[in-house]
Amino acid sequence: MTIRLAATAALLLGGAGPAPAEDLDRPPIRYTDTAPDTAVSRLEQQLKAKKLELAHSDEHGYLPAVLKALDVPLSSQVLVFSKTSLQRGRISPKTPRAIYFNDEVTVGFCRNGDVLEVTASDPHLGTVFYTVEQRADRTPRFTRQTESCLICHGSSSNQGYPGHLIRSVSPDAHGELVLSRGSKRVDHTTPFDDRWGGWYVTGTSGKHTHLGNQIVGGWSWAEDDEQPDPSNVTDLRPYFTVANYPSPHSDLVALMVLEHQGEGYNRITRAGMRVRQALHEQAALNKATGEPADKRRESITRRIEWACEPVVQYLLFSEEAKLSGPVRGTSDFAKEFAARGPFDSRKRSLREFDLATRMFRYPMSYLVYSRQFDGLPAEAKDRIYLRLHEVLTGRDQSKPFAHLSKDDRAAVLEILRETKPGVPDYWKK
Ligand code: HEC
Asked: What does the alpha-carbon distance between residue 128 and residue 162 come to, in Å, rounded to a whole number?
């Protein structure tokens, strides 16, 4: 489909159809041939300038050096044992895949894997994919990947846009999926009961049950009547050789944050790309009809609004799965994450956890501080700030925001005013 045709089709459809994925390599996105601007590209420059070297370790290859260089905390380790990703042959309940993350990068590691799998967040390209060959005899290099990762990460489950994937499945004793039992995408709206099939989970969740730490048919090392309580596992040693991994944890709170963050970035990515595509089409239409290049068309305004609303709702934790009692992880993840702030003058922070009734004390995502949020086109940010302001000042009392109390709204508004550079001036009055 040419751009012109796409624009016409979008207009005919009322301007609300998702852009087809193949358009991502055309202007204005040019996903594949645009040089990324990510934490990884900044690290690559340091490596090139020989300001830094990545050491190889016999046990884990370049993993420890990469985590350190990218400032990814070990406490973020989570473990997945379903054969659902690229290096499926390396993954099983005895040899889970480890995932580490911070706000900007996610690193996947398989024991004896050929590569480390890395995603990094880019202000314009959304999620960017890399591999690092795990070979001691070669200088370690981040190789950008597109199709080989987008087959799954840019598939219809991400509406054709490059993004993160977190799923909950039913695995058997080999980590193979029991397909008849289905699978689910996971984010902060997923009920606890449906989460973590195929994952190890260390933590306590009281009466909440979840699907982690389980295989269909039960663990062969435990008698049927002595299967461990899967929802309150704090030690993974019965399941596999924990010492083979840099950390013994698959922290429950880290999992919750990774799931929140993955879908949050996916929505920011889609909004950014959709708005840029809409503006690009507007310019093309204006050119074709001889109008000024920036003449705003009603249909384009509606597309921008439609593209941004999912971000507004997600940032404000619409439809978040509620907790009915305290949940805790086992690593230092929560402590380290919360300590990072930023804090307002009353020491409040969007990273402060609740973990008894909901995830965070203040229902507004820290992703608002991300480079990817800041990299949204001005038209998208204007719209998102306007909607946030309507909700936080109480003018919008509609259903998606009914979970926000008056105090929640006031607190979030105050915290953002003090801690988020770039909030519009009308927010400050
Ligand atoms: C066969 C499908 C598939 C392919 C191909 C694939 N992935 Fe994934 N990836 C997944 C799934 C499914 C998950 C969710 C966790 C899991 O089940 O292991 C995931 C999770 C991840 C994660 C952690 C969560 C996230 O989304 O950030 C990273 C990092 C990652 N993949 C990187 C990559 C990179 C880099 C490539 C390409 C070199 C790649 N993947 C190719 C299926 C795939």
From this structure: 7
Q: How many CB atoms lie within 10 A of CB 225?
A: 5
% residues pLDDT > 90 (the chain): 90
Residue of minimum CA distance from atom 35 in ligand 1: 117
To the nearest whole percent, how much of the chain has pLDDT over 70? 95
Report the separation in Å between the CA atom of 417 and the middle of ligand 1, taken as the mean of its atom positions. Answer: 36
Ligand 1 atom closest to Cα of residue 169? 17
Distance separating alpha carbons of residues 37 and 342, to the nearest angstrom: 23
Ligand 1: distance of its center to the CA of 190 in Å?
Answer: 19
Given this model, what pLDDT does residue 5 score? Answer: 30
Give the tens place of pLDDT for each residue, 333-345: 999 999 999 999 9
Instruction: Report the alpha-carbon distance of residue 245 to residue 96 in Å, rounded.
Output: 9
Q: 325-364 burial, b for 16+ CB within 10 Å, e for fewer?
A: eebbbbbbbbebbbeeeebbeeebbbbbbebeebbbbbbb
